[in-house]
Each structure stands twice: as C-alpha cells, then as structure tokens.
Amino acid sequence: MTTLVLTIVGDDRHGLVAAVADAVDAHGGNWENSQLAELAGVFAGIVEVAVPDDRVDELRAALRGMDGLLNITAHPSSAAAAREREASARHFGFRVLGNDRPGIVREVSSTLSAQGVSIDRLTTETRDAAMSGGRLFEATIAARVPPTVDIDAVQAALERLATEIQVDVTVGD
C-alpha cells in the first residue's frame, strides 16, 4: 500500500467529502486520517489515504478529474520516516489565548522552531470577546519535542514570549 496525503480546497457545498471518499473507495483505497473544515465559505482539508501500489496513478487521475468541484493535490507520504520520528519524540501541548493582533502565530511558531520543536497540529480561531468588545485569538498546539530538547526550556521560552506579546499560555495536553 502507498500512503498519500491529499490537500483539498474548494467552494463549500454539500457532497464534497462524499465525492472524495467515493474516489478513494473506487480505487481500493482506505481513508485513514483527516482534518476538514469550512473557513470563510471555502472547504479545505487534508486527508491521509492508503491505496494499493498499482492503483495510485488511477486515483491521482480520478482526483484531478474533480477540478472545478475541488482542487486536490496528492502528495506521497514518508510514513516510515514519520513512524521513526514518532517513536523517539515526546509530545507537548499548549493553548494560547489573548487579544487578537497580527503576528501571534508567527511569534509562537518561531519560538518553537528556535527550540527545535515541530508542530504536529495547530488549530486557531478568532472570536468576539464577550466583555471588552474586541476580538480574542485562541490557538491549540500539539508539538513534537526531540529527545535532545529540554521540555522545561521550551516551556520557559513560551512563558517569556507570552509576557512579551501579552497572551496567556497554558501548558497541558
């Protein structure tokens, strides 16, 4: 089996997930992991599928045939390398909450990168602040910390950043 990671983008409407799932199934594939969302009227997602080696090209062609409905790109996966990284990594999760302003994701991701930490999952949202009338920014981050990196140092760097940019950082899975 070959693992493909599909990136999917298109105008939101009913039946998009079913269309992709039908194509995967029709080519002997298995839908394994996904993150899908509607953002500002656009449907976007990333999907991991496994497909028989001899059907990969057929599935790619079928997905290309969805142009106009969805723009889909099939990326080959390095599943073996991912399993190897996962075996030795430690996980670190945290949330960021504060007044919304440009640059928060850049600053948090740069701090993690400087510490040698990789982001596995990042979810963000902005919403109206109930009492102040402004906008709040919230991020939930799951990160992978190599064995050579001190988790306490990562946490200290995030706490320094939180003070600088005036956000709350809460560590915990």
UniProtKB/TrEMBL annotation:
Coiled coil: none annotated. GO terms for biological process: regulation of DNA-templated transcription. It comes from the Bacteria. It comes from Microbacterium rhizomatis. This is ACT domain-containing protein. InterPro entries: ACT-like_dom_sf, ACT_dom, GcvR, UPF0237/GcvR_regulator. Residues 5-77, 93-173 form the ACT domain.
